[in-house]
Structures are given as structure tokens and as C-alpha cells.
Amino acid sequence: MRDPLGKKVKAIEPSGIRKFFDIVSEMEDVISLGVGEPDFDTPWHIRDEGIYSLERGRTFYTSNSGLKELRVEICRYLRRRFGLEYDPLEETLVTVGGSEGIDLALRAMLDPGDEVLIPQPSYVSYLPCTVLADGVPVILELKEENQFRLTREELLEKITDRTKVLVLPFPNNPTGAVMRREDLEAVAEVVREKDLYVISDEIYSELTYGEPHISMASLPGMKERTLTINGFSKSYAMTGWRLGYICGPKEIIRQMTKIHQYAIMCAPTNSQYAAVEALKNGDRDVDAMREAYNQRRRYLMYAFQKMGLPCFEPFGAFYVFPSIKKFGMSSETFATRLLEEEHVAVVPGTAFGNCGEGFLRISYAYSLEDLKKALGRLENFVKKL
Amino acid sequence: MREQILTFLEKNSKIDLSELAVLLGSSEAVIANEVAQMEKEQVICGYHTLIDWEKTSSEKVTALIEVRVTPQRGQGFDSIAERIYNYPEVQSVYLISGAFDLLVILEGKTLRDVSAFVSDKLSTLDSVLSTATHFILKKYKDYGTIFGKKTKDERMLMMS
After folding, report:
1. Chain A nearest C-alpha distance from B30 (Å)
2. pTM of the entire predicted model
3. Do B58 and B22 fall within a single domain?
4. What is the CATH number of domain A59-281?
5. Residue B65 sits in a domain of what CATH number?
6. Is the pLDDT of residue B39 over 90?
7. pLDDT per residue over A131-157, tens digit each?
8. Contact flag B22-A299 (C-beta cutoff 8 Å)
9. Is B115 found in the same domain as B75?
10. Residues B68 and B132 in one domain
């Protein structure tokens, strides 16, 4: 029989962390600090709108780009929060989570052999999506000494004649790093000079704890070179609703809409109705969740300091990325032993790229009680080393 | 700062003040001082425990009583409210807008206790015009806490 599979998909490595997660799910009495989604339920008024849309029988497709009402609200929101000006009809596409946006953007922009700059440590889908779109991923290794920000020098070093796209994943999963205005300006200058495009994944934009988030597309001359990806999963605790959006130059959005139309049709209708409510009346929920995350973040930083675990202070997302280099073992060994000996699950930094070696991702999308219990066990473990 | 402290204490009055200081990015001395000050100013009026009495063997009846009264010259509703809230079995007294004036929450051992209070003590007060008594059958949620609801973390560990 001939091989049913194509070479491209086979070349993609299965996630190495899967095995580790399987052990976790088999184990009893595990406290997990591994999950990358909010612990809050979707605020009730938003859920209620979703239910109401079902009750009214709104069970049909929406237009391919998404409900017009939702796109209008998205553009209003982006203007009020980040000073972005997008047209709801031509520059906005509602997607199935931010992750569909990543896939669409790469597929719409790449020709075979085009290089995509991907900063790491970062979310795991940029690289395989690039490969599936016939692009060539080029990794930019971010450094702790720069608070895991992308610098102009790091960027310049990897640019070639084939470089077309820069992925900009800030606030960052897994490091919690954020880019300040001056950091973005330095990157933007290079992008303009070298005629690149930016896919700015801003899914954690509501979760910053120092300065408010700054959108790449709001910088001068950057709107026409930037695709802004955002969504409802992290800011409104709506992961399971699978709803995001992407905004950018209309000629790119038009081509992405084509792929979206043939592959997906449209994002889930009831999620779209719920999202309208989230944007209209959800600001207070976002503020309350941000404040809760911030308190937990402070608590973690304090606890790490007490147990002598070095960690740069992250100002975004809901992760901390402590260094375990001083214990002289790999991230994976550390995480495996911590799981076996103390029944605490954390994600080894290497799950997010090779340069994550020597670090752990610890999520604080957990209640304070859970965090306290887990940190007690982590402290026990560290003392033994 | 005060509002943040109060938000925590309202949910958990047993919280360790040093921990609260970490969460709010402040110092224990500052927090302790604020709390003491608010106790003195009676911003904080007491520390109570939320109990689901249904889970105990203790029998209790709680009633909400709507009371219509004639306000008194020079004193409005205050003096009649005081006459009512001085009874120890009265849990709460609120002045209400709408079809009646005072809402009285009463706790008794038995139904008879409650009805005796209403007929003997409350209705016989001079300025009380009428009462309507509602017995509470079940408490689902009190002070923001849903009774008997256990939450389990159903999130799956995956690369996200």
C-alpha cells in the first residue's frame, strides 16, 4: 500500500511534552501549575448572552468575516484600548481563536522558501504553521538578561534576503515578558527598513501589570505592515468558545478571508453573540481578573525570592519563568523529578524552544490556595537539592 | 488601598495580614495600621462567619417581614427602627423604598417563635400599620457565596 501521508506533515515533530502531560493526567493528588488558560469561568452576563442567542434560534452561519455587529465592536474596542484604527468591514476578520489567525496569516503571506522570524521561547504553533505554509522558520533566541525582550541586534542578525515576516508574541507566553514602547520602536525601525511584515500576537494584551500594552500597529508607519491578532480566550476567560480576530491591511485580510471561508465557513455563531456582550459590558470583568492575576504574580515573586529561586519579574500574561540553572539539571529532569517526588506539575522551558533550557513555566491561572499548596511542595523539593 | 483591603477582608476576614501585604504589594505594617484605623472608625464593624445552618443539627427559622409604619414627627423612621432592632432575635433592619417601609429579618427557633414575635411584639407597636411575613425555605446564595457548590478544575493540561 502506498504511504497515505504527505512529507510535509510527517516532517513536523510531535510535541515532546505530550508524554509528560500523559504522566500528569494518570497521577492522583497532582497539583498542576501547567495549564495555560484562565481559571475563571466566563463572566455570567457573557455566558447568558450566548445562551440567549441559542434560545432565539440563532443557530445559522454568520457571514464569513463574522457578525458585522461584532466587527464594529472589535474596532471600537481596539480604538479605545490601544488607539488602533481599523475598518470593521474590510480590515477585520473574526476567527476560531487567535490560533486560526496565526495559521491564516502565514498561509496568506508566504511563498515557498520565505523566511519567518520566530522569537523563542514562545507559543508552540508559530513554527509548525510556518512549515505547513511552506515557509522556513528562523528562530530568534531571546535572553533572560534582556528580560526576554526582542532587541534590534537580535533581529538584524537573522535577517536575510528571504526574510518576509516577523512574529511578535508579546505579552509573551511562556516568559511573561512585555515590549515597552522604546523596544517596539527599535524593532519597527528595522521592520520598515528591511521591508518586513509583522504578525503581532497580542492575545495577552489585557494582562499587563505595569504599563498598559502597546500595539505594534499603533506605531507610525506600522499599520500597513502589521497583522494584529487578538481574541477573547485570555482577556474574558473564554477559551472554550474558540473566538478570536485578526485585523490588518485589507488586501491581506481579503486573502485570509478566502482561506477562512473554504476551511471554516465562519466562527461559531453563539460565541460571536456572547463576544458582542463581552466587548460592550466586559471591561469591569477584565479589570477584576487582571487585579487577581497581579496579586498572585506578586505572591509568586515573593515566594520564589524566599526559596531562593531566581526569576526575572514578568509584567505580562499569567506566567512566571524562573531559572533553575543553579541546580545543574535540565528543565525536563527538574520537572519530572518535581512531579514524581512532590506531585507538582510545571512545564519545562524547553517545551517552548531550545533556549527555554534552564527555565520552568509556572502558570498562575490558579487560585491562591492551589498556588500556596504547590509552592510549599516546590520549596520542599528545592531544599532537597 | 482601603478599598482593596476591605474587598479581601469581606471575603476572608481570617487572611494573614503579611500575606495580604504581599498580594497588594505593600508592607505588613501599613496594612495592619489601615485595618486598625478602619476598626476604630467603624468602617469595619465586625468579623462574622458564614454558616450553612442546614448542614448542622440546629433547627432555625428565618423570616423576612415587610413592615409598613407611620413615620414619627421629628424622628422619621429612626425611632421605630430602633424599637424593632433592639430585639436580639432581629438580625437585620433595613429602611426600604417602595410599597413598604422597613424590612426586618428575624431568626427564631420555630415557626411559632416567629409568629409570636410578629403578632405580640411587632404588630402591637403603635406606629406599625401592617406586616407581611415571608419564611425562607432555602438559601442558595448568601453574601456572595453559593452554598454547597463544589468546583472542580476541569481544565486539561495541553500546550497552550
Report:
1. 17
2. 0.92
3. no
4. 3.40.640.10
5. 3.30.70.920
6. yes
7. 999 999 999 999 999 999 999 999 999
8. yes
9. yes
10. yes
Is there a contact between B153 and A239 if contact means CB atoms under 8 Å apart?
Answer: no
Average pLDDT, whole number, for chain B? Answer: 92
Contacts of B108 (CB under 8 A, 6+ apart): B60, B61, B62, B63, B89, B114, B117
pLDDT band at B7 (very low <50, low <70, confident <90, very high): very high
ipTM over 0.90: no
Query: Which residues of A sit within 8 Å Cβ distance of B?
Result: 15, 17, 21, 24-25, 32, 34-37, 39, 123-124, 239, 295-296, 298-299, 302, 345, 351, 368, 370
Sign of CA dihedral B19, B22, B25, B28: positive
- In sequence order, what are the residues at sequence separation of 6 or more whose Cβ sits closer than 8 angstroms to the Cβ of residue A109? A164, A165, A197, A252
Q: How far is CA A241 from CA A86, A98, A139, in A?
A: 24, 11, 31
pLDDT in tens, B52-93: 888 899 888 999 999 999 988 888 899 999 999 999 999 999
Return the pLDDT at B157: 84
Residues 6+ positions from A61 with CB-CB distance below 8 Å: A265, A266, A269
Beta bridge partners of A227: A199
**How confident is residue A17, by pLDDT bands cut at 50, 70 and 90?**
confident
Q: Which three cell numbers stand for residue A266?
A: 465562519
C-alpha cell at B81: 427602627
Indicate the SS3 state at residue A259: helix
Bridge partners, A114 (sequence order):
none
The band of B160, judged by pLDDT with boundaries at 50, 70 and 90, is confident
Q: Taking CB atoms and an 8 Å limit, are B155 and A298 in contact across chains?
A: no
Q: How far apart are CA B84 and CA A89, in angstroms?
A: 63
Contact B155 A39 (CB under 8 A): yes
Taking the CA of residue B65 and the nearest CA in chain A, the distance in Å comes to 31
- Tell me if B158 and A21 make a contact (CB, 8 A cut-off): yes
- For A7-42+284-384, CATH number? 3.90.1150.10
Q: Which three cell numbers stand for residue A312?
A: 526575572
Residue in A21, A37, A351 closest to B155 by CB: A37
Cβ distance of A35 and B23 shorter than 8 Å = no
B23, B24, B157 ranked by CB distance to A32: nearest: B157
Q: What residues contact B84, with CB distance under 8 A and at least 6 apart?
A: B67, B90, B93, B102, B104, B122, B125
**Which residue from B22, B155, B160 is facing A298, i.e. has the nearest CB?**
B22
Residues of chain A contacting B157 with CB distance shorter than 8 Å = 21, 24-25, 32, 34-35, 345
Q: Where are the domains positioned within chain A?
A: 7-42+284-384, 59-281
